[in-house]
Structures are given as structure tokens and as C-alpha cells.
Design goal:
The complex is a heterotrimer.
Chain A (H helix, E strand, L loop, with lengths): L6 E5 L11 E7 L2 E8 L7 H5 L4 H9 L6 H16 L5 H29 L3 H22 L8 E2 L2 E2 L5 H27 L1 H7 L7 H6 L4 H5 L12 H5 L12 H24 L15 E9 L2 E9 L5 E7 L1 H13 L6 H10 L4 H5 L1
Antiparallel strand pairs in A: 1-2, 2-3, 4-5, 6-7, 7-8
Helix pairs in contact in A: 2-3, 3-4, 4-5, 4-11, 4-13, 5-6, 6-11
Chain B lengths: L10 H8 L2 H14 L3 H11 L2 H5 L1 H11 L5 H6 L3 H5 L5 H16 L4 H16 L2
Helix pairs in contact in B: 8-9
Chain C lengths: L2 H11 L2 E7 L5 H8 L12 E3 L8 E5 L10 H7 L5 E5 L1 H5 L22 E3 L6 H16 L2 H5 L1
Parallel strand pairs in C: 1-2, 1-3, 3-4, 4-5
Classes of the chains: A alpha+beta, B mainly alpha, C alpha/beta.
Bound molecules: iron/sulfur cluster.
Chain lengths: 361, 129, 151
Amino acid sequence: MKRTVDVNIPLGPVHPCFKEPARVKCETKGERVIAAEVELGYMKKGIERIMKGRPWQEVMFLAERVCGICSVIHNMVFIEAMEQISGIAVPPRAAYLRVIVNELDRMQSHLLANFSYCYTIEHETLAMYLLDCREQVMDALERLTGARVTCAYMIPGGVRCDIHAEDQVVLRESLDRIEKELHRYASMFGNGPMIALRSRGVGILTPVAAREAHVVGPTARASGIAEDRRIQHPTYKQLGFTPVVRYDCDNYARIMVRFDELFQSIRLIRACLDGLPKGIIRGGGICKAGEIRYSGEAPRGELTYSIKTDEVGRVVEIQIQTPSIMNIEACCHSMIIGADSIADVTATFVSADPCIACTER
Amino acid sequence: MSRWIYEQDLVSQKYRILIAMRHDRIIRQIAADLGIGLQDLRKYFIEHLDMILLENLPARYEAALAAADHGDPVARAVGRALYTTYIPIVPPYVMDSIYRHVDAQVKSGTPLIEAAAKGRAMIREAMEP
Amino acid sequence: MSILQAIKNKVRSRSIHVSYVDVGSCNGCDIEVLACLAPRYDIEQYGIFVHNNPREADVLIVIGAYTHGWEEKLAPLWEKIPDPKAAIAIGNCPISGCCFDRRGSYVDPPVSKHIPIAAEVPGCPPRPTEILNAILSVRDLVFADWEVKRR
Ligand code: SF4
């Protein structure tokens, strides 16, 4: 097909705004972007091929290393899929602890995403505030699980370590502090006139295009699609979970959805701490043969594991569908088309919270 | 189109994406559906789609099965939305003419299966370079 | 040592530009490098400035286990960095391939096969303070008296 193109601008793979290597090739006419193409392959490690034929004890740690930012949810979805296959029940206390750790992980991931966006639109003050706030969340995560990243907290039939009474007090205190700070930052972002100029009405993703590319997570919820796998999760059902939805479809909405979800996560953790049941944190169980397709809600959206195991708990077949695949695709094929300048391309790309390590695995 | 600097050959990397478990299943389904060879379809995809779209094939295919062309058996039989917006194999204007042709045949009394097979053949023709 | 060299040493020790490149990691080390920017660790108080532009960089931080996409890219990138320069490998991935160096995977570690590495920080992932410490020690080893050593 013949097209009138002024300039082809490749962004990446090493680019000041991108944390990770990806190459977005934009075809521009004047300053307007008329088409974009993504070139990956810089992170393809073939982790699914490594996982094949290994026992679950090894795959559990490999699953965490699919993505370092949302390592807890990869662990959780894999373990819960194994539990579903083998019919292992989780003690109620462990189920609540899982929610606490998962929400802390979601908080740090959202804070990082919002940091990246603020950094990209060159609002460095707010970016640094958010990164500082994230360190406090990381402290809480380290206190509970023993590691900052890749903590392998969940195991089939429960969790690895309990939460002590003094940890609960410290966690509550830091949550109070984080919430107070976050209110300030969220209003800074929500009411900042300069931020609005860079974000409102930029990078529109219509609900129709979102459905076509099967967009998930905060990106979908900012386009008015109320989809969240946590609605189906039994523990979240007990906690009375409702998803956050916004209808503006632009960069601003995507960031604000993340801010709203941060407050929601704080509420969920508080509810968990209030209603934390007593009892054991680890039941027993044996991993069996079976096949399942199981999804959970990662910070970036729906994460699906299709697993087939044999009778000694070895993984025979596995495929991971990560949320970033859908989000980046929608971002590059719908959001940045028609962007008014190349500067908006990087901002829009970052607002969808791309995670290339997940995408290529 | 103008040429890119630092261009590298992506065929082997794109092929790696397509041989993952779910991608492989989806591609086999599409190949059986359209009646073309597996390797031919892979080659077509590698040449025409970019890498992120290849990664997203399973999700798009499932979204299409869940949502596309409901309530219109002819459109569903030729995969009107499936092969244009969800998985861009043929351009929309070509698909429109195929759809009109099949629709006319069905209206004039040809059984749907036969007409749809004709539609498939036309899609195959459109895919030839 | 000449006065000029003393001035150069002084200046170089307080102005280090860092560029990082991710050659196929799990992101775990990536975010720990990012965390160094946080006010808690405050990388800029040591005169270290992260801005991800190879042509201005002194230190290249390498993360990840070298995938095939980088074959034609990492070495040219290393050549673009002006002298004096040093590369630091962060995490187990560039050192040994971590859990990815198995049969059937697409990685090709270690990174030191492809570019010269000056320092390695093991850990999966290492803590931000360790990363900071590595950059600071490399600064003293590589950049001090660089012109003298080159002769
Ligand atoms: S060393 Fe560990 S945390 Fe770091 S990139 Fe490799 S797998 Fe991820």
C-alpha cells in the first residue's frame, strides 16, 4: 500500500523515557503520527520453554521471574492454578495474608507507573514524591515477606510466613502515612493545570478499540470497561470489592484510575487486617495431574496461566498471557495514532504502563 | 516506504512468537479454517503483521469469537470482522466485496456452507501477494 | 601528578553520567536501579546523574541476560560511549544467566563475552544501596588518573 509519509521516527530501543527496550517506529506526517509499528525481541528469554518439564517447586520461582515488577501476582496466579488442579484448600488466614501482600505489590507497581508517567511529562517533583512513597510500600513488603522483589511468599496450601502483632501495628501506621501523602499527590496531579495540558484529551482509547484488542486492567477501566478479575476471586468477594471505573479514555484517566486504585488497595489491606482470622497459615496438599486455565488480576490487568501438569506435579505445558501484551498493542495501534506530536507518543506509551519483560517472557 | 536504520532481520524472532503453545493452536485453527498450509499462513503473518500483534493473536482471536458478527450467520461464516478488524488478514474493502458476494449467493438459494466455502476461496485469493 | 590531572580527578569524581541498558532481564533489577533515584537513596548527592543517553554517559549499567535482539546493538552502543568509560553488570543475569540459562532458552550469557565489564554486582536482585556502592567504587578505580594509566 502506498502512503504519504514525511518522516519515519524510530523510538528506542534505548530511549531516555523508556525503562525497557522496545522499538516503536512511528510514521509521521508533519508532527502527526499516522501509523506505528512495534519491534520487540530485545527481551525474549523463552521462559515458557524453560518451565516445560520442570517440577512446580522450580516453576514457582521461574514464574516470579517472568516480571520483576509484579512478581507477587505471577507467584499467586501460578500457585492458585496449581491449587485448583490439585484441589488444595487454603486456610482462611493465609487467604487474607495473600490479599495483603498482593495489594501491597499492586500499590508499589501503580506508584512506579505513575512515577514513570510524571517523569516522562517532566514533572520531576511529583515523580520523586511518588518514588519516595513507593519506598515506604517496599519497606512494608519487605517486613512482611523478607524481600523487596521476587519474594516467593505464596506456596501451595498457604503462605510462607505469618504476620506478627507488631508488624500489623507498623503496617497500619505506614498505611496511614502513605494515605495522607497520597491524598496530597493525587490532588496535585488531579488539579495541576500544566499536567492537564499534557494529559487531558491525549491518547484517546475508545471502548470499541479497547474491546477489539481485549484491553485489560487500568487501561480498560479508564475507557469505561468495568472488568476486573478480582470480582471473581473468593477472598476479594468476602471483602466486598468493586472496581474503579472512569470514562474519559485519555492519559489523565489512566493515571487517575491508578491513584484511585491505590486508595482502594489501602482500604482492602485495612479490611484484611481488621478481619484477619486466627489459625494456621499453611495447610498440606499434594500437587496432582490436571489441566487448567486460570486468571488473576495483575496490577496491569488480567493475567492468564494455561497449565497442564502430570501426576508428580511437573509442568508439561504452560502458556502465560500477560496483560501488557494487550495493552501495548492497543496503545500502539489505537492510542498513539493521531497524536499531535512525538512528545505525546512517549507520554501515551508510558501511560499504558508497558512492561516489556512480561510481553516477551 | 523509506528504509529504517539499524534494521535487523526479524523473521526468526517472529517465528519464535508463533511457535508458543497457544499461538500455535490458534494458527492451526485459522489455517484449517481458511484451508491453507500452516507454514504459508505463518509466513503470511510474519511478513504482514508486527510483533506485538503476533503476540496478541490469541487474545484477539478469543475476543472475536466472543463478540464479533453475532446475529449475522453469513458474516460469521466468512469471518467478516474476524479477518479484518480483529486479525487483519484482508483489507476491509476487499472483505466487504466478499461479504456482498456471499450474501447475494445465499439470498439466491445456495446453501450457506457452500457459499461460505466460496468466500474462503476468495479470502485465499486476496491473501496471495 | 600534574595539577591538570588533579583537577580532572576532582571533577570526574563528582560528575558521573549513567546510562542503563536492559538486555533481557526480568525487570527486578531494573526497578532496583530505578529505586536508586528515589529521595531515600538519592543518587544525585554523589554527583551521579542517570539520564540514559549513551553518548554522554561515563558508566553503562547492564541488566539482563543478553538476548538475541541485542546481537547487533550492544557492542555499537558500547562504542558510542566516550572514554573514559566503564560497564557495570547488575544482578545474576548478566553474570551467569541466573535462572534463564537453561536448555531451550534464548539467552546467551554472560555479557562479559560481548562487552568488557568492569564490575559485577551479584544478587537477584541486589539492593539499591549495593548498586550505588558499586558505581561509587568503580568511579574511584576507573576514572581517577585515567590519562596517566592510559599511557
Ligand atoms: S538477576 Fe534476578 S531479579 Fe535481576 S533481572 Fe535477573 S532474574 Fe531478574
